[in-house]
Prior knowledge:
This protein starts with a strand and ends with a helix. By secondary structure, it is mostly helical. It has helices at 17-32, 51-64, 79-92, 102-114, 185-195, 211-225, 256-261, 266-274, 288-294, 309-322, 325-338, 349-356, 363-370, 381-387, 393-403, 410-424, 428-440, 448-454, 457-468, and strands spanning 4-7, 36-41, 70-74, 95-98, 143-146, 153-158, 162-167, 175-177, 200-204, 232-236, 239-240, 305-306. The strands form five sheets. A three-stranded parallel beta sheet has the order 1-2-3. A three-stranded antiparallel beta sheet has the order 4-5-8. Strands 6-7 form a two-stranded antiparallel ribbon. It is elongated. The chain binds glutamic acid.
Amino acid sequence: MIVRTRFAPSPTGFLHIGGARTALFSWAFAKKHGGQFILRIEDTDVARSTPEAVQAILDGMHWLGLDYDEGPFYQMQRMDRYKQVIQNMLDAGSAYYCYSSKDELDALREQQMANKQKPRYDGKWRPEIDKVLPTIPEDIKPAIRFRNPQEGVVVWQDLVKGRIEIANAELDDLIIARADGTPTYNFCVVVDDSDMGITQVIRGDDHVNNTPRQINMLMALGEIDGAIKVPQYAHLSMILGSDGQKLSKRHGAVSVMQYDDDGYLPEAVLNYLARLGWSHGDDEVFSMQQFAEWFDLDHITPSAAQFNTEKLNWINAHYIKQADNAYLVTDISKRLSKLNITIGAQGNLPAVIDLYKERINTLNELASSIAYFYQKPVFDDAAREKHLTSEIKPVLATLLSLLALIDWQAEAIHDAINEVVNQYQLKFPKVAMPLRVALTGIAQSPSIDQVMALMSKDEVLARINFAIS
Ligand code: GLU
């Protein structure tokens, strides 16, 4: 049997972290088993679905590199098929017309609530052997309900949560088409999973309650088609924020694309998501190819996973260190231009990036850390006060005159600093720190002679001059 998984987002918002993890796990499961991964856009909630959200999902999938073998399929384009299946179910007796009016159903509900009963359909229009149905009212357009079995239980071996059993008595007859003819959510999922030959449904555990209803409908469809196709289910626990609350806008990132804006590499986000609720021993850093080889559903934790930005930063830092320099140059140029910084031809960007890429967690941090190479530094007042003292200014003045005479290379720069250090009998940092502040605006930087060698001589002299005057 060929494995076929799907990711089936509703386009009512961005592709968020939870959705991206569901997509990643479905993708990896298909890859691992040499199967197919399908993208299906569940856009039947017309009031809440938007083309922008569809695009945001496609963009998010593309940015992450989660390629699909089939799709995107759009449920709104499959209406004829849903109508045909509804007709088949009516013909087979697994669905029936329900003429209960809204007022009637509201009154029923109120009465049940008042009696402390679980609100449910009373089965008024459900056909039974020897049952005489009420006379069909003329003014009511009927909804169509699924004739859910009343006896027995629905059982499935959830691939994450283990065995789950629900009594059919708990499930009432679900509306599968509204009075206006539009098919409902659970029904469309069932028709699609069946038509698309989905073998494993991997999705968030907010859908656990839908599963027994979906299994019953799949069984009914199977009886009509003569081939029952019930997939296996794996319900993933939700992702919590670092405060233990459900992950939400409050935790920063709504959309995976926000991570792009914030300076995360897609490889890092994927690697981080892969470990969010799944493990392979102590392995933390691995490629997606490796992940697809290792991935299984047995090592998914049934408990909720907690989002940890520090860990994401750590993984991101790792991928930035490993990143191809040409890629970083293009990316960082874009981020600098967003900061209104243009790099001249003498920009030395590859070397500047090399100097900094082991020191930062995000691409944004990388861009802002090196901004001083391309514009006047922004001074940290405390650092200026601490390091650019009146005692050190004459030392820097001496250094300035020495630097003016040398060949502009790291070694010669280093020698010039050493000469001043010796002349004034100071420790190296006593000179290096004020120099850092003068050139970069802050007291932390990579080795200062390397920084200086990457700037133009004129610029270094001008900055020291400015700092001591
Ligand atoms: N469209 C549903 C959602 O976005 C997912 C349905 C499913 O995976 O079965 O939550």
